[in-house]
Amino acid sequence: MLLERIWQAGLRSCNPSRIKHTQNFSVNSPTPRTRPRWERYLRRTAYFGLGVGTVYCLDRQFNASAIGRNLRTLWACALITADYKLNFTPEKSDQIPQLHERVANVMFNLFTSNGGLYIKIGQAIGANAAFLPRPMQVKFASLFDDAPQIPYSEVLSVFKSEFGRPPSGPGGMFEYFDEQAIASASIAQVHKARMWPEPGQAAGEGQWVAVKVQKPAVAKQTEWDLGAYRIVMWLYEKSFELPVYFVVDFVADHLRRELDFVLEAENAQRTAAYVAQDPRLSKTVYIPRVFPELTTKRIMTAEWIDGVRLSDRNAILRLMGELPGASKSLRGGTRAVMEPMVELFSAQMFLWGWVHCDPHPGNVLVRPHPAAPHTPQLVLLDHGLYVQLTEEFRRDWCGVWEGLLAGEWAVVDDVTRKWGVAMPDLFASAVLMRPTRLRRGRPQRKPEEQGKRFEDMTNYERSVVMKARLKGFLTDTDRMPKVLIFLLRNMRMVQGNNKSLGSPVNRIKITGFAASRALTRTPAHRPSHASVRVLPPRSLSYRHILHRRCLFGSHGRGSGFDRCSGSGATGWVLRTRLSAVYAGWPRPALVWMLRRMLLMVRVVYYR
């Protein structure tokens, strides 16, 4: 039995199918043909190119090039990071301006190539360009121009998707619809249309309206773009050790809201109600009427307004009669344009707590007032991006402005510490948009600046100092109010608008008055700051009167804050006829007022 099993096992081991092909190792057997290495590489390259081309075509056709845009973003960010890491060194200090220029070109090309929300991000950078190197200031200024338009075929598809009807023609939404867009922005474009006539009206007598149509690719690209934005901010925080990622969620949430035109229509109606109830603004500012029945998430219909865009500087100067040889059609000059604008956004920040965050010159029109043809009226457009301020933050923000202009440094110190800001001087400079220090005498030298003045430092040393200051600016990002990002954006754009017209108004004075006036409307607010110890407790209305007297001399044209050159002293000369103005005032109040006036002047003039 045992022998039989051994015999069967031997037969199985001799099975030809189980025998390895030893002939391949025979000396006389032919060698199998192998492909040349170049042929293998060529084949792999062809497969790879075919795969990449397929993904590119599918992404372009069905995904609005979202993947390609993100790859372009990551590549640009990698170039910028590598450029700074390799070339931002003490040995190459004299080449740092060229480094900034290269980076500005890469970022600008990225934003203009990707479009959509990237234009919004670029506009946000451009609005705060004064904090950036000079090459970036120049480059990003052009991002406020018109964006490319989408063809009418895409507009038609959006209408059929939203309403199930074409824009015009038989069964159309409007009697007439201009196929050529009047204006194009980053996420939408505007067409002029005429509504169907009301009962009793003849054909062609319907109301003219502006129809805002969202570009179809934006909805597909948004989440991809915001995902890339998160990655980039995280990488920059890790690479450059700067606290920037903490604002990502807040910014992304508000950018998403801007894509909902129903929400934008509600924002416009709310702002119109605020303006109508304010006697200072109801005649000088206008918000176009919105038609909710003709508004969806991707299409918004509003009243058509004929006017001149603020971005057309020469047309504005001609309209206001400030160009040589121009007929003066509207009264007041450019001052009558900028004064209501600054008052409007000051009221939004300090009184209403409801702030329009995109007041770039393309979103502001100037027209003759319908009831007073020789009086200018501002028309505010694009109500997609707003922030709501809490009551606590609104009062603190008012206190910061009052403290900065009246020299109440304890107020500014207390609020900035509450907000997690470790450097009140730097914060004050960001708010007033000029170098500011909050103490008498020479500013305290930072350890990294010991032994050398900032003006005498090399480009590299200055950049290192500024980076150290920015790193120390925020001690607690969790306490930092995120709305400050959009408030500073708003103020920077308003400042830019004022500059473009030659600084016809004193923006700081108007803003300071609005902040002080807003505190009088919140009697429950009693700040426990040093200002209360300097002046015996009085009503907030009385404090507002004293604050106005601190600024009473600033009645000139423009200010040093908004001028590109010059001392800015014109118009800030104090008219000190104290015997006539302050006769009969209590002595403590007069002393307090004089002290604050001198401190305010020092804030304004210090360079």
Automatic annotation (TrEMBL):
Residues 143-410 form the ABC1 atypical kinase-like domain. It comes from the Eukaryota. CDD domains: ADCK1-like. Belongs to the protein kinase superfamily. ADCK protein kinase family. This is ABC1 domain-containing protein. It comes from Mycena sanguinolenta. The lineage of its organism: Eukaryota, Fungi, Dikarya, Basidiomycota, Agaricomycotina.
